[in-house]
Design a protein that fits this description.
alpha+beta; Dipeptide-binding Protein, domain 3; 13 helices; 20 strands; 27% helix
């Protein structure tokens, strides 16, 4: 019977824990279609894949910026910059990233390349455009045949049933080796498949659904700040004087509470400012429960000035100002300076048609104080609150968290427990 004691003896001496699988695959549910993986992918599985396959020229980090491609960048004039390149960075296919690849990345962001050399580039930003925000959006990638390759830790290696397969370029012990991005038609479908065990996570989850997962032992809820914020856009067709008067009357606290589905403004809250008299203001929002809640809270807070609340038509964001006076929507507010891409005259995200020559000139000269003063005199919007990211993943991923910029940018560091 001595052999029966051997397992007990091994336990007493502390048997080593089993190692995590070397080929751990994480299957993530994604709302929407797959689409082609490319630097400009904006939605669905392809957009999430960009966090793992590609890298931007610079990226925001706590307290500043970092880059795999640049040693430094320095201003040579109001719009002229020198970018000093690092050596030895490679694409996932093994080829070296050269000055031409970085030049092409910044050109896609409308930054003019003045000269190119082995050591670096000289570039010129568009009028009144901060360099850092353009570099943070400039994706380094190259096209090989019909597919794009990047410098990220993963590459596209195939198709799952109806989805994408990403495999780590260089295996790392104790980390996720393969990611499958599985498209789901609705958030409800993704939730059901997660609870059935068909998925190992949902990176973007409706907060109401997250409550249903509390206490599920094999899952962890992830929460973090998104780089976006809920904003109330003011139609530039309203006079600057009326917009200045409306800004302090926008019920910011009520809107933020409505988004979180929490009570607001009990005893001791500051009195609500009364909006200036006038005709009721038409309020629009993109089709989403979050934006609808924001729009309804806005109408209630404006009292008699709160008018009709209606969703925008499909793909009608650019034409909202024809039919609405106010718009409850979402914009990027991180990294610092990126809001200029919504406000600069002619900027690619300027869907409101806002134009302010004083603001443009202040941006071009790098005078942040003057830019802020110009916006105070001629306000284009009211920023309400940062949006929250909510996700759920396999509980074995002990240190999983959502990224502050790309939602899956931290996934390469997630550790897999046995």
């Amino acid at each position: 019977m001595r052999w029966l004691l051997l397992p007990l003896l091994g336990a007493a001496l502390g048997c080593p824990k089993p190692a995590p699988p070397a080929d751990f695959t994480l299957r993530l549910g994604v709302i929407g279609e797959v689409g082609p993986v490319a630097p400009d992918a904006q939605s669905g599985a392809a957009a999430l894949a960009t966090d793992l396959v590609f890298e931007s020229v610079i990226r925001p980090v706590p307290g500043g910026w970092d880059s795999r491609f640049l040693r430094r960048w320095e201003r040579l004039g109001p719009r002229r910059w020198r970018l000093e390149l690092k050596e030895g960075v490679r694409f996932s296919d093994g080829s070296v990233v050269g000055p031409g690849d970085v030049a092409e990345a910044v050109r896609r962001r409308a930054v003019r390349v003045v000269s190119t050399a082995a050591a670096g580039l000289e570039v010129e930003t568009p009028a009144a455009s901060p360099l850092e925000t353009q570099l943070a959006l400039a994706i380094v990638a190259k096209q090989v045949g019909e597919r794009w390759v990047g410098t990220g830790p993963f590459s596209v290696t195939g198709q799952a049933p109806g989805g994408l397969v990403l495999t780590r370029v260089e295996a790392v012990p104790g980390r996720i080796h393969r990611v499958e991005l599985i498209p789901c038609a609705t958030g409800r479908e993704a939730l059901v498949r997660l609870l059935r065990g068909e998925l190992g996570g949902i990176p973007s989850l409706d907060p109401a659904n997250a409550e249903l997962l509390d206490g599920v032992p094999k899952l962890r809820i992830l929460r973090g700040n998104a780089p976006h914020a809920i904003a109330i856009m003011l139609n530039p067709r309203l006079s600057a004087a009326e917009r200045r008067a409306l800004v302090p009357a926008v019920p910011v606290a009520e809107i933020a509470a409505a988004i979180r589905r929490e009570p607001c403004c009990g005893e001791g809250s500051p009195p609500r400012l009364v909006p200036p008299p006038g005709v009721p203001l038409r309020i629009g929002y993109p089709r989403s429960l979050v934006f609808r809640r924001a729009a309804l809270a806005l109408r209630q807070g404006l009292g008699a000035r709160g008018g009709d609340v209606r969703p925008l038509g499909t793909y009608d964001l650019a034409g909202w100002s024809k039919d609405f006076d106010l718009l409850a929507t979402s914009i990027l507010v991180r990294p610092p300076g990126i809001v200029a891409n919504y406000l600069r005259t002619g900027a690619d995200w300027n869907f409101t048609g806002y134009s302010n020559a004083v603001y443009d000139a202040a941006l071009a000269s790098g005078d942040e104080a003057a830019a802020s003063e110009a916006l105070a005199e001629d306000p284009p919007m009211v920023i309400v609150a940062r949006r929250e990211r909510v996700g759920a993943v396999d509980a074995r991923l002990a240190n999983a968290r959502l990224g502050d910029w790309g939602i899956l940018e931290t996934l390469p560091e997630w550790e897999v427990s046995p």
